[in-house]
Specification:
heterodimer; A: 148 residues; alpha+beta; Ubiquitin-like (UB roll); DNA polymerase, domain 1; 2 domains; five-stranded mixed sheet; 5 strands; 34% helix; elongated; B: 326 residues; Uridine Diphospho-n-acetylenolpyruvylglucosamine Reductase, domain 2; Enolase-like, domain 1; five-stranded antiparallel sheet
Chain lengths: 148, 326
């Protein structure tokens, strides 16, 4: 039996088939569909979650590897200033990449890498936005970083 | 993805014997290449032995050596104070090598073993790939190529080694510690990778069931001038077209010691011994840099899609040398 600790809640999981990724476990077994499946091959960042304080890609992580790890998903953020800033700055269009962008941006603040626009762009580069909302995403992250 | 069994042993010895006991077993660390290739159907191990919780993690300074546990993540090594002070070009290679999410997952040992990005290797629907199916041919040579190798390449395989970190570590003369059921051994990274020859499926000297446990990084003398310059199609989060790791020791305007390696050009991370020889005790001038670049890139094997890399690689090295000496 594998135990996932997601947003502070313990979820015992029977992973008889170890092919289940963390992403699929979150979405299909726990019903936490805020984490999105974009490319499913580690290229787009839509599936970004925070594991033991670090941002990772849930699509390339096996759920079995996360036994007893503390996972935070977009559902675990409670009106985080980053979410409000994304809305205020219109930092999305279709919204599909947004939860991954926000999880990545929240981790970015903890890494102290949001000091200037060039750093924000570089250290958010693992999160693609096909709608091209990048300039507004940078604005949102910059605003939260300044007030952090 | 095909079915497999998953195990998570609690000791290094158990992990090694679990893999050694099954010819279709593999170690699983960060998974950033391995899980991806399993989804693509390129890898289909029967057993995955998860090593991520084994005590092979951390960076320790020991005299003039930085000892890096194989399961240290790219992000953890990039944050090491000694590395930042003494070998900043290694840190640059780490940071330019992947997104933060990938750096938090990918381990140093795994990074050295990352597989090529050759699209024909990564697509099992393509029948001809000597690396995937020995003896089947090379679709990249016959078809469209671009992100491919020009050094160490042949009509049998032009797959590029994709790691940025390995390029920097080859320049640094890193040493890899290996452990198997037969005991332990060390291999210089410059002798770790195998040229494809007519067996491109064999990429390094690792035997089945042998595990990378640590990597020793000899610290260069204080005061080196170094850079890792990466040229690519977009400004961030992209594999190299060409890259250069350069570490020079200078006495005034004369180069007294040079470490050179290039990425984006070779079937293995390409150490530039000839370029180093050209630069040793040479004045830091454009002519010397160009001579070094000619020594670096000679006898390339090109196909129409990769011909541009010959001049691009030379200019990349010249620019890296110009930047560190100015």
């Amino acid at each position: 039996m594998t135990t996932l600790i997601v947003n502070g809640m313990e979820y015992p999981l029977d992973l008889a088939d170890p092919r289940v990724t963390l992403l699929d476990a979150l979405r299909d077994k726990l019903g936490l569909t805020g984490t999105k499946k974009g490319c499913d091959q580690g290229a787009c960042g839509a599936c970004t979650v925070i594991a033991d304080g670090r941002r990772i890609l849930s699509c390339l992580t096996l759920a079995a590897q996360c036994d007893d790890r503390e996972i935070t998903t977009i559902e675990g953020l409670e009106s985080h200033p980053m979410q409000e800033a994304f809305m205020r700055h219109d930092a999305f269009q279709c919204g599909y990449c947004t939860s991954g962008q926000i999880m990545s941006a929240v981790a970015l603040l903890g890494e102290n890498r949001a000091g200037n626009d060039a750093d924000i762009r570089e250290f958010m580069s693992g999160n693609l936005c096909r709608c091209g909302a990048y300039s507004n995403i940078v604005s949102a992250v910059r605003e939260v970083a300044r007030h952090a | 993805m095909r079915e497999f069994r998953y195990e998570r042993p609690s000791t290094v010895a158990e992990a090694i014997s679990a893999v050694a006991g099954d010819p279709d077993a593999d170690f699983l660390a960060g998974g950033t290449t391995e899980v991806d290739l399993m989804k693509d159907g390129v890898f289909h191990p029967d057993l995955l032995v998860d090593i991520t919780r084994l005590p092979l993690r951390g960076v320790r300074k020991n005299g003039t050596m930085l000892q890096v546990g194989a399961l240290t993540t790219m992000e953890e090594l990039a944050a090491d104070r000694t590395l930042i002070e003494r070998a900043p070009f290694v840190r640059e290679a780490l940071l330019l090598g992947a997104s933060t999410q990938l750096r938090n997952m990918a381990t140093i040992g795994g990074n050295l073993l990352q597989r090529t990005r050759c699209r024909y290797f990564r697509d099992p629907a393509v029948p001809a790939c000597n690396k995937r199916e020995p003896g089947s041919g090379c679709e990249a040579v016959a078809s469209v190529a671009r992100m491919h190798a020009i050094l160490g390449a042949s009509r049998d395989c032009i797959a590029l080694h994709a790691s940025d970190l390995a390029v920097a570590l080859v320049a640094l003369d890193a040493v890899v510690h290996l452990q198997s059921e037969d005991g332990e051994r060390t291999v210089p990274l410059t002798q770790f990778y195998l040229m494809p020859g007519d067996t491109p499926n064999r990429e390094n000297v690792l035997r089945h069931g042998e595990l990378i446990t640590a990597i020793d990084l000899p610290l260069p003398p204080e005061g080196i001038r170094s850079t890792y310059l990466k040229v690519r199609d977009r400004a961030s989060y992209e594999f190299a077209l060409t890259s250069a790791a350069v570490a020079l020791t200078m006495d005034g305007s004369v180069i007294t010691e040079a470490r050179i390696a290039m990425g984006g050009v070779g079937t293995i991370p390409w150490r530039g011994f000839e370029a180093e020889e050209v630069l040793r005790n040479a004045p830091a001038t454009p002519d010397a840099f160009r001579s070094a670049a000619e020594g670096m890139i000679h006898d390339p094997y090109v196909v129409p899609g990769t011909a541009f890399k010959v001049e691009l690689a030379k200019r990349t090295l010249v620019r890296a040398l110009t930047e560190v000496t100015s």
